[in-house]
Write a structure and sequence with these properties.
With 430 residues, the chain is of the alpha/beta class. The chain has a domain of 142 residues: Alpha-Beta Horseshoe (Leucine-rich repeat, LRR (right-handed beta-alpha superhelix)). It has a 13-stranded parallel beta sheet. It has a three-stranded parallel beta sheet with strand order 7-9-11. Strands 3-5 form a two-stranded parallel ribbon. It is globular, with a radius of gyration of 26 Å.
Length: 430
């Protein structure tokens, strides 16, 4: 693209501001090419806004028409692109396997241009998961050319994209700079195994993926791992740098032996997030392992009626260096039945716990008990944050319904907690 094309752009209504057009026109050609390759090209062809605008266009409701227009738009930009490199390449549009030939060519184009960040978000509205059988199957070029083409890849994001075992292994083993892999709504294979020092991946996130029963990660420098989806087996071994672990849909009597499955990395963990449900099933306290370095613990829990949740503070008690304790409550009913608050004395006081956050606080006794636990047992407590955001399960509530409950929740938090707040502890109600 020539400088004269940029000079032809007219800006209006910028009275009193620097003339951006004149500034751009004075840039060197190599700088302009870099800017255009990273921003202008993709804002014209493959940015998130394009998908949203087209989906909202009344004349383009039919998905085939939308898809065809988007395909032509991307192909047109790619065919006219002459820069030898592309740093970021993002496709965001509702595209299924019927568009495989075009998507294959786009991936080939990105890899030929030594792409660093490659993203394929092929889901409707960005997140609506489709039948996995209709997903696009990720394809790579031939093995002979693959090593050179993957050498620059640093981040790979796949949404509504399936991966088979050979493809995943080839990506992990032949991408020396790949640090982040994110998969959402992907269909995979039954047993995932990834390990060895030739894998340089540091951050792995898998959300709402299907088709697999177990995952085994071993022998490389993984720093963070997030999994949210159907219950599976975890085998995490020899991961000395694993600091952040986020596990969703944990079985709540921990019948799936979740703690034993992560015990091999317990010594290195600093952040632990557990998404747990059905507290009526109870918690096997004896299954909880020591987590000596965990500084931040977040528990996402179902809250049925007004059942006490204090037993789950035993997980916090397994973290002697805990500094931040965050609890997110998803209640099935906002009922406030009990009147008596239970107190629990921790076997050892929390010496480092400074911040307690309760999300979904409604003012039930079970909510209050969690705050009282921290007040009673955290000698270094500095701040309590109450977020009344409504996370209701099993109720057909609109956003407006949830917002109507916020004032009552705020009022309850202020009335319940202000009188018992120790000196030096701040209460923040959002």
């Amino acid at each position: 693209m020539k400088n004269k094309r940029l000079r032809s752009v007219q800006r209006k209504g910028d009275h009193g501001r620097p003339n951006l057009t004149d500034f751009i026109s004075r840039m060197r050609d190599d700088v302009l090419v870099m800017i255009l390759s990273r921003y202008v090209l993709w804002s014209q062809a493959v940015s998130p806004q394009d998908g949203d605008e087209m989906a909202n266009d009344e004349k383009l409701r039919d998905i085939d028409i939308e898809g065809a227009k988007y395909i032509n738009q991307v192909n047109g930009v790619i065919s006219s692109y002459n820069n030898p490199r592309v740093q970021d390449f993002l496709i965001r549009f509702d595209l299924d396997y019927t568009y495989s030939d075009d998507i294959d060519e786009w991936i080939q184009f990105a890899l030929d241009k030594k792409v660093e960040k490659l993203g394929l978000n092929l889901l409707d509205n960005g997140y609506s998961i489709r039948d996995p059988a209709e997903n696009y199957d990720f394809a790579l070029p031939s093995p002979s050319a693959m090593v050179e083409q993957l050498v620059s890849l640093k981040k790979l994001s796949l949404m509504g994209v399936n991966l088979n075992e050979p493809t995943l292994n080839r990506i992990l083993k032949n991408s020396p700079h790949l640090r982040t892999l994110y998969m959402y709504g992907s269909d995979l294979f039954p047993r995932i195994r990834a390990g060895g020092q030739d894998i340089k991946l540091e951050h792995l996130k898998m959300v709402s993926c299907s088709g697999f029963e177990s995952i085994s990660l071993y022998g490389f420098d993984l720093v963070s791992f997030t999994y949210c989806g159907p219950e599976i087996e975890f085998h995490l071994t020899d991961l000395p740098k694993l600091k952040e672990l986020d596990i969703g849909e944990v079985s709540l009597g921990l019948e799936n032996n979740m703690f034993s499955q992560i015990s091999s990395c317990a010594l290195s963990l600093q952040v632990l997030i557990l998404d747990m449900w059905s507290p009526k099933k109870g918690l096997d306290v004896n299954a909880i392992i020591k987590l000596p370095k965990v500084k931040k613990l977040m528990l996402v829990m179902g809250a049925e009626e007004d059942d006490s949740l204090l037993e789950f503070t035993s997980i916090a008690q397994a973290c002697p260096r805990l500094e931040t304790f965050s609890i997110s409550l998803h209640w099935n009913s906002p009922m406030k039945m009990r009147k008596k608050v239970r107190h629990v004395a921790a076997p050892q006081l929390h010496q480092h716990l400074k911040l307690l956050e309760i999300i979904g606080y409604y003012g039930r006794i079970s909510d209050l008990e969690l705050a009282v636990y921290a007040i009673d047992n955290a000698v270094a407590l500095k701040i309590i944050i109450i977020d009344p955001s409504c996370h209701a399960c099993g109720e057909d509530l609109t956003i407006e319904d949830c917002l109507k409950r916020h004032p009552a929740a705020r009022s309850s938090a202020k009335r319940q907690l202000t009188p018992i707040l120790p000196p030096g502890v701040d209460l923040v109600i959002l």
